[in-house]
Write a structure and sequence with these properties.
The protein has 19 helices and 19 strands. By secondary structure, the chain is an alpha/beta fold. The strands form 5 sheets. A 6-stranded mixed β-sheet has the order 15-17-16-19-14-18. A 5-stranded parallel β-sheet has the order 3-2-1-5-6. It has a 3-stranded parallel β-sheet with strand order 7-8-9, with no helix packed on it. It is globular.
């Protein structure tokens, strides 16, 4: 996030896109609701489903799944044509405005309506509302990123925020809501194939030399590795012989699970490190038992870039070890001794090699809230990014065209499926499905559908039905819901027994390599019961 969570209550307009915030980020949703109810903020929700947050919204726009670039460009078109943009910010802080202006010329309200289904009057109203109520904050989640155009979607939102001068100010920003508690920290620590810690490029020879010197090693590769979504098909093709998976359950969370399973079976050796025996761990040659959050010392970095101390509350069961302890033991056995005594020593090294974490220590975290970048011990941290400048000087506008999703409906598959989460379960249910109370609240998978669409297929509320895509079929309970919109059905992806990701596409965003999990063409069938 470019801005801290508390800034949501400072915004005059809040634009929530592709985020079922009340169920996926319930704590953050409380800030949104307070901003609307007590601070007078105007909430705009743009989502294919009529999620609960729409009850608090000034406007709800329902675009067809996969059409985000079109309607964002449509908003920009209106703002530019009506001269509602922040001319001073654009002049002082940005470049290539002319490229943006040229690229959005064709995205008239009428044209956008023909692509997205959003009525032109609603598009114009939302454009005026966002542009004229400063500061405005943009919150988005996987409904924006999990597309083949995910990178373009995010760049388009950055265009919109810069256009209206909503970056570098309290109450503004472009703010992704991270899907898991420490996914921000994992990325910060180099959990990506093309960077060292702090997003330092592995291809930069100067960075490579400096880190080699710090680590007292030679020959670090300057070649970026593969993403997770590239590794699995590479295993199926025989290019990867072994995989080491930590705290991830791709046999429920990855697209086209049937293909994922085939790829895992092609491996010579699979290691899974986790706290429970997940569906993926059941296929492993070796399972390494790790500790959970309550059994370890360390730090998490949350969605707003705030580094938080984690303290051990209970002892781990059996022979379970901390992730870092397991890695150190393996590395030592493989000929590269790692001799850290505790997590504090690791944090000290993180600060040494990571410019944005250089001023963050356990001692400071005892009494201070620190957001990176925090470049030295006297620095207070940076809750709001880009106050005076952008990382490379001026912000760059990008001219981005709309590219349709790779997955389209047709006569055979006439409905669109989008996937997501429910309040009571988390990701693949590795932890939450161990809890009786949560299982009672959400015991099984469902297919959310409108009564009108159900009537077309003679489907009854609560009956078991079959849903099929080009990649496979699963069975789940039909659930009539006011959240649903005609033409689109929804399934949570938590449930291995009716895994939504048996249906989803493996097509990837060309830059981020994120799969298109939010747009999937499907058909529904009643299940014939033999007499």
């Amino acid at each position: 996030m470019t801005n801290p969570i508390v800034d949501i209550e400072k915004a005059k307009v809040i634009l929530v896109i592709g985020s079922n915030t009340t169920e996926n980020h319930p704590v953050i949703s409380s800030y949104i609701k307070r901003a609307v109810k007590f601070k007078g903020a105007k909430l705009i929700v743009i989502d294919p489903r009529k999620i609960k947050l729409t009850l608090f919204s000034e406007k709800w726009l329902r675009p067809l799944p996969g059409t985000n670039v079109a309607w964002i460009n449509g908003l920009i078109h209106v703002i530019i044509k009506e001269k509602l943009f922040d001319a001073e910010f654009i002049k002082k802080r940005t470049i290539d405005f002319d490229k943006l202006e040229k690229s959005i010329e064709k995205f008239t309200p009428d044209y956008v309506e023909s692509i997205t289904g959003i009525k032109k009057e609603d598009l114009i109203e939302v454009a005026r509302l966002y542009a004229q109520a400063k500061p405005g904050t943009i919150l988005y989640c996987m409904g924006i990123t999990q597309h083949t155009s995910g990178t373009d979607n995010v760049k388009s939102l950055a265009n919109l925020a810069m256009l209206c001068g909503n970056l570098g100010i309290e109450g503004g920003g472009v703010n992704p809501l991270r899907g898991q508690n420490n996914v921000q920290g994992a990325c910060d620590m180099g959990g990506l194939p093309n960077v060292f810690t702090g997003y330092q490029a592995v291809t930069d020879p100067n960075i490579k030399t400096r880190i080699e010197k710090t680590w007292n090693v030679k020959g670090l590769s300057i070649k970026p590795g593969l993403t997770a979504t590239e590794m699995i098909p590479a295993a199926g093709e025989g290019h990867i012989k072994s995989l080491y998976i930590m705290g991830e359950n791709p046999l429920v969370s990855d697209p086209d699970i049937t293909h994922v399973e085939k790829c895992f079976k092609a491996l010579d050796f699979l290691v899974v490190q986790d706290i429970f025996i997940t569906e993926t761990a059941q296929m492993a040659d070796v399972i390494l038992p790790a500790t959970c959050f309550a059994e370890k010392e360390g730090t998490f970095t949350n969605t707003e870039r705030r580094v938080q101390r984690v303290r051990k509350a209970v002892h781990a069961p059996g022979k379970a070890l901390g992730d870092w302890e397991i890695i150190c033991r393996l590395s030592t056995h493989m000929g590269v001794p790692l001799t850290y005594q505790n997590s504090r020593e690791i944090m000290d090294e993180i600060a040494m090699v990571t410019p944005s974490y250089r001023g963050i220590t356990y001692e400071r975290l005892e009494t201070e809230n620190l957001h990176w970048p925090c470049p030295d011990l006297k620095h207070p941290g940076t809750p709001v990014l880009h106050k005076d400048t952008f990382p490379h000087g001026k912000g760059v506008f990008h001219g981005i065209d709309y590219i349709p999703s790779t997955e389209k409906t047709n006569k055979t598959y006439p409905l669109l499926l989008t996937t997501g989460r429910v309040l009571y379960h988390y990701h693949t249910g590795t932890m939450t499905m161990q809890t009786q109370g949560l299982n009672e609240m959400s015991p099984e998978c469902f297919i959310e559908i409108t009564p009108e669409d159900a009537g077309t297929y003679n489907i009854m509320d609560g009956e078991m039905i079959q849903i099929t895509s080009k990649r496979g079929s699963v069975q789940a309970i039909a659930k009539f819901s006011p959240k649903a919109v005609n033409g689109t059905v929804f399934m949570p992806f938590h449930f291995a027994k009716a895994a939504a990701n048996k249906l989803t596409s493996t097509k990837l965003d060309p830059v981020s390599k994120i799969p298109e999990l939010k747009v999937c063409a499907v058909k529904l069938n009643r299940i014939k019961i033999d007499a």
